[in-house]
Amino acid sequence: MESPVPRPDTVNKSRFAADAAFAMLAGMQLDVFTPLQAGPKTAEEIAHAIGVGPARLRLLLYSLVTAELLTEQNGRFSNTPEANQFLVKGAPSYIGNRHATFSAQWVYKLKTAESIRTGVPQAKLDFSNSPRDEVEAFLRRINVRAVQSARALLERYDFTTIKTLADVGSGCAGIALTMTKACPHMQATALDLPLVTPIAQKVIEEEGMTDRVKVIAADVLSGPLPVLYDVAILRNLLQVLSLRDACLAVKNIGAAIKPGGMIYIVAQILDDCRTSPLEAVGFNLNFINLFDAGESYTEQEHRGWLSDAGFVNIERANFLLPDGDGVMTARKPK
Predict the structure, then answer these.
(1) Both 62 and 210 in a single domain?
(2) 26 to 19, 30, 46, 57: CA distances (angstroms)
(3) Does 282 lie in the same domain as 182?
């Protein structure tokens, strides 16, 4: 019996998935979904609500139907329950404002083959020669997600007894600021490279938190941090370092945590099979195009770094934060 002739089903599935993704992106950018919160509308009614012409919008609306974000009946379009939940402005779980992030990441990913072919990241993030206002704008954009991560950590973990906290690789100090605002007993330090710390200081001053959040310029690869802390939080730091440097960073940061203190690693964390979760797998395409080193490291790799640095009670959270990041925690022995 002859084997069935293979068909390009997986190829076509991937191709059509890209079409659906671009339709979703356009729908988010145009805010197609919010006017439909109140009920079904025609293409003309939606076009009027968002201030565009109906002829080309109608084509997008049918693409969104095939993407399973809208339904259509007798020429009237409605949100699916998922679109109502996540893509309508004002909804508690609204994520439609992430379209700029999606767009930027997809632009990077179009360069993947060339980055691999040349061995040079074709969309490299290198702020060493960038104007300060560009660096600041970028850091402020990603700070929104740092604040979200901090809020999620506060919901999941108990920080009520923590007096001192290090926000390592702080950017605009979103972790430090959010934690100290929620915990009046806490003092925090935002630590980052000298290029970044003046911007963090500016944001802290804007928030009126200079009495609670200090700034220190530090390179976690050059040696232990200069002060001891009860807790250190590393958000998206290790994943932009090489395997060797990530191990060194954990050791140096660990040396600055008091006995009995905790470390929280917030990052894209792969299962040891390296094919899940999908967010972390897909993020590796970003790393190929943006950084000379770094990747979504596995749970076992994180465990190895923490163990080598002398940590115990190493755990991986069984949940993901709102932006898809995982969490690893460990304790410094008393």
Answers:
(1) no
(2) 11, 6, 14, 10
(3) yes
Query: Domain residues for 241?
Result: 110-331
45-97 per-position pLDDT tens digit: 999 999 999 999 999 999 999 999 999 999 999 999 999 999 999 999 999 99
The answer to whether the CB of 192 falls within 8 A of the CB of 218 is: yes
Q: How far is CA 261 from CA 197, 229, 254, in A?
A: 25, 7, 9
For 256, residues 6+ apart whose C-beta sits below 8 A from its C-beta are 166, 224, 225, 226, 227, 228, 229, 232
Residues 6+ apart with CB under 8 A from 323: 145, 148, 149
Burial class of residue 185 (count of CB atoms within 10 Å of its CB; 0-12, 13-18, 19+): exposed
Q: Are 55 and 180 contained in the same domain?
A: no
- Predicted TM-score (pTM) above 0.85: yes
Centroid of chain to Cα 244? 23
Yes or no: say if 186 and 165 are a contact pair by the CB < 8 Å rule: yes
- The C-alpha atoms of residue 280 and residue 272 are separated, in whole angstroms, by 12
